[in-house]
Every structure is written in structure tokens, then in C-alpha cells.
Design goal:
Blueprint lengths: L12 H7 L4 H6 L15 H7 L4 H14 L2
């Protein structure tokens, strides 16, 4: 389980995808190229949401829901 607050803006994309693979669907839904990107280890969820113009709060909620539905 992710040790920091689950799905906080400062987590890297790679941390989230490694811990909760089901969240990949959320990135793909928003046409984010984060899945498989070499920068995923460095890019945070907050930065990714800004780059792709996806509202952060809604994005984090979607990630949390995707992770919860995978259990």
C-alpha cells in the first residue's frame, strides 16, 4: 500500500501505477501518456494533472475509485 496519503498530488505516477495497476484505466481515459512513460518515475500526479488539464481533485477521486473497485 502507498505509505503517503493515498493519491496525494505529490505521489509519482510510477508509485501509483506500481501499487495500484487498476489506475492505468484512469490515465488512459483522460488520454494521458503516463502509462509506460519513462518520466513516470519523476512526474507527480499534480504535475500530470496540470499538463493534461485534468482537475486535480476530480483526478484523485477517480484514481481512488479505480483502486477501490479493483479489490
Amino acid at each position: 500500500m502507498i505509505k503517503r496519503q493515498l493519491f496525494s498530488a505529490d505521489l509519482t505516477v510510477a508509485e501509483v501505477l506500481e501499487q495500484c495497476p487498476s489506475t492505468a484505466a484512469v490515465f488512459l481515459k483522460h488520454r494521458m501518456a503516463c502509462v509506460g512513460c519513462p518520466m513516470a518515475s519523476f512526474e507527480t500526479l499534480g504535475a500530470s494533472s496540470r499538463v493534461y488539464r485534468v482537475p486535480l481533485d476530480a483526478f484523485l477521486k477517480e484514481l481512488k475509485l479505480a483502486a477501490a473497485n479493483s479489490n
